């Protein structure tokens, strides 16, 4: 499909043509993967990689992709809200807290060890790993893709946990990023 | 052409029984959307060398891939994709309103109202006459009482009056037409659509009271219509005002805002029984005529409307009931020819009485042939209201719409080229 996309856009195409081909192929490819009960993220990524390595018109496509993404992203989030079957269970809350704690620990604790092994030229503050806490859209995409490909009762719990984690991470990450950068700044001054 | 064939081959393979054991047929809507979007778009482009409008290509692509021919799209998928109809119709109505500059229309106001009046009168009376003439030869009418024949003919005439403003606007946009003919056809199509809804409410109530002796002609529906129209005008003014304020003060993501307004206006207004087309038309008209933001509104719509229109027209082709056309094609063909003749007579008389130029008198009828959503919606209401003969009636109307929706865009495009108005509108940057 990436090759077909390249073929379609090889000739002189307007922005309107590009938008139609882009949307059409994304729907077609993701639909085909769903049709075979597979998650579409990987296939769409391969579509993007194939096209961007064949085409010479990335500079035209990329802004278009960005402008389209916003509208689709909003629709995507609204649909996720509609898909989200949130049934309150204290175990879900506990699991979310635990998983966030695991994420924070796994981003921060091994850092001194890797610093030592890899020998970073500049000093990194201890909390530098907190800069990577944000997971955003891709985390949600994974969770939704799992739910759509495997419509089991467990998938609802999985989606709830993933969405709550993403929301919590998005709430914590600006603070964590600020904390980490301020710390870097103060260590550099010292 | 190679891309078209490649895509066709992939879809053929995907829908073949060979792969059926490995697939999940319930997950087909996304494939259907992606496929029909690219296939119809490429097919539409192939119409240019044949001097046919792209819309005809989209509709034919929809018919070919739809549930009656190649079955690449199932009936369920077609119904799922009709969710986009609301968005497309709202964008079409917003564009129509945004293109109606009052200063320009004012000059042809007499001609427009005269054409609308004579067309409506000729077609309704003409179809009553046709019903009386063909009654002995038609199973639908031969066994019915005189009053039922009158009801059926009256309702068929009302439906035949309707034109598709969406197709009209799409052809104008595609040919980048501007001028006197374009204004007259567009304005008359929109105004007529508005009156057809009112006439239909009268005709339906009248037919209901004819069908049952227990029921008397109910004038309460007038109050109902007034509430619907008044409410729609008010909501349209509010939506138009909201769009002006947003474009003027917030300015960011105008396309996204307009798309959201179009979608939600349609869904919400329809749920509460208002007329979404009237609301969006008025909103567009207000933005164009009461502010300086009309150009930005149209730009915002044009930036994202092509994929929506392609899917809308392709799906309207896929949903055309070819089975109904097969069963009633001869009578449908008679109705189409008769309707065309009455459109000509009505337009000619209206334009002549309003003293429009000879070209308008002779040719502008060709802009009023296409039919789509409004007529279809009315046919569905009739089917539900008159269970005795409603389904046969709907089959006939569907067949008429199928023929008119295929030939209508071609007639209108030819008109715009003939009178030299195609390509007169500057490209928006």
Topology overview:
The complex is a heterodimer of chains A (190) and B (429).
Chain A: H1 2-10, H2 15-35, H3 40-54, H4 58-83, H5 90-108, H6 111-118, H7 136-149, H8 153-189
Chain B: H1 2-14, H2 29-45, H3 54-65, H4 75-81, H5 83-99, H6 102-106, H7 109-134, H8 139-142, H9 146-161, H10 165-175, H11 180-211, H12 220-250, H13 254-271, H14 276-290, H15 294-318, H16 322-353, H17 358-363, H18 373-385, H19 390-418
Poorly predicted sequence stretches spanning 5 or more consecutive residues of chain A: none
H/E topology pattern of chain B: HHHHHHHHHHHHHHHHHHH
What share of residues are in beta strands of chain A?
A: under 5%
Shape of chain B: globular
Poorly predicted regions of chain B are none
Q: For this entry, what is the oligomeric state of its chains?
A: heterodimer
Structural features, described:
The complex is a heterodimer of chains A (190) and B (429). Chain A has 190 residues and is an all-alpha fold. Chain A has helices spanning 2-10, 15-35, 40-54, 58-83, 90-108, 111-118, 136-149, 153-189. In chain A, helix 2 packs across helix 4 and helix 7 runs antiparallel to helix 8. Helices cover 77% and strands 0% of the residues of chain B. The model of chain B has no long low-confidence stretch (mean pLDDT 81). The longest helix of chain B has 32 residues, at 180-211. The chains are: A mainly alpha (190), B mainly alpha (429). At the A-B interface, helix 1, helix 2 and helix 4 of A face helix 1, helix 2, helix 13 and helix 15 of B.
In summary, what is this structure?
The complex is a heterodimer of chains A (190) and B (429). Chain A is built from eight helices and no strands.
Task: Looking at this protein, list some descriptive labels.
heterodimer, A: 190 residues, mainly alpha, 0% strand, globular, B: 429 residues, 19 helices
């Amino acid at each position: 499909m990436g090759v077909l996309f390249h073929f379609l856009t090889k000739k002189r195409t307007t922005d309107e043509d590009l938008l139609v081909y882009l949307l059409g192929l994304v729907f077609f490819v993701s639909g085909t993967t769903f049709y075979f009960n597979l998650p579409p993220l990987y296939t769409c990524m391969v579509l993007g990689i194939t096209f961007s390595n064949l085409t010479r018109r990335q500079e035209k496509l990329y802004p278009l992709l960005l402008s389209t993404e916003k509208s689709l992203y909003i629709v995507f989030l609204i649909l996720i809200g509609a898909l989200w079957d949130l049934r309150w269970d204290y175990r879900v809350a506990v699991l979310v807290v635990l998983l966030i704690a695991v994420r924070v620990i796994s981003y921060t604790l091994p850092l001194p060890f890797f610093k030592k092994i890899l020998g970073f030229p500049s000093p990194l503050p201890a909390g530098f790993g907190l800069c990577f806490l944000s997971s955003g859209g891709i985390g949600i995409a994974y969770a939704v893709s799992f739910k759509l490909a495997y419509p089991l009762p467990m998938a609802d719990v999985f989606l709830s946990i993933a969405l709550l984690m993403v929301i919590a991470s998005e709430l914590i990450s600006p603070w964590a990023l600020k904390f980490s950068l301020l710390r870097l700044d103060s260590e550099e001054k010292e | 052409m190679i891309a078209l064939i490649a895509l066709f081959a992939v879809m053929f393979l995907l829908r073949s029984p060979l792969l059926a054991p490995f697939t999940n047929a319930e997950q087909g809507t996304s494939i259907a959307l992606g496929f029909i979007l690219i296939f119809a778009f490429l097919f539409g482009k192939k119409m240019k060398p044949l001097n046919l409008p792209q819309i005809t290509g989209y509709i034919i692509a929809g018919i070919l891939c739809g549930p009656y021919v190649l079955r690449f799209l199932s009936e369920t998928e077609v119904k799922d994709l009709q969710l986009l109809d609301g968005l497309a119709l709202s964008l079409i109505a917003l564009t129509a309103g945004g293109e109606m500059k009052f200063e320009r229309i004012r000059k042809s106001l007499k001609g427009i109202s005269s054409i609308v009046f004579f067309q409506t009168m000729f077609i309704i009376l003409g179809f009553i006459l046709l019903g009386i003439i063909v009654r002995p030869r038609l199973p639908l009418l031969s066994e019915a009482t005189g009053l039922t024949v009158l009801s059926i003919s009256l309702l068929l005439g009302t439906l035949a009056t309707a034109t598709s403003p969406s197709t009209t606007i799409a052809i104008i946009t595609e040919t980048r037409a501007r001028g006197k003919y374009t204004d007259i056809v567009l304005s008359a199509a929109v105004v007529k659509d508005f009156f057809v809804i009112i006439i239909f409410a009268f005709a339906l109530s009248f037919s209901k009271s004819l069908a049952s002796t227990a029921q008397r002609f109910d004038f309460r529906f007038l109050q109902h219509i007034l509430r619907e129209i008044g409410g729609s005008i008010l909501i349209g003014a509010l939506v138009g005002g909201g769009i002006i304020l947003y474009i003027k003060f917030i300015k960011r993501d105008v396309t996204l805002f307009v798309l959201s307004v179009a979608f939600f206006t349609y869904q919400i207004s329809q749920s509460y029984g208002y007329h979404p087309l009237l609301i969006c038309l008025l909103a567009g008209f207000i933005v164009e005529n009461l502010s300086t933001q009309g150009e930005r509104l149209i730009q915002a719509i044009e930036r994202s409307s092509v994929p929506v229109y392609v899917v809308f027209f392709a799906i309207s082709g896929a949903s055309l009931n070819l089975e109904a056309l097969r069963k009633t094609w001869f009578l449908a063909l008679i109705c189409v020819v008769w309707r065309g003749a009455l459109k000509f007579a009505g337009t000619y008389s209206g334009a002549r009485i309003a003293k429009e130029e000879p070209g308008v008198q002779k040719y502008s009828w060709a802009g009023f042939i296409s039919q789509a959503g409004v007529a279809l919606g009315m046919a569905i209401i009739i089917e539900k209201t008159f269970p005795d003969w409603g389904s046969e009636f709907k089959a006939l109307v569907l067949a008429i719409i199928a023929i008119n929706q295929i030939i209508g865009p071609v007639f209108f495009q030819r008109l715009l080229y003939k009178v030299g108005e195609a390509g007169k509108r500057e490209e928006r940057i």
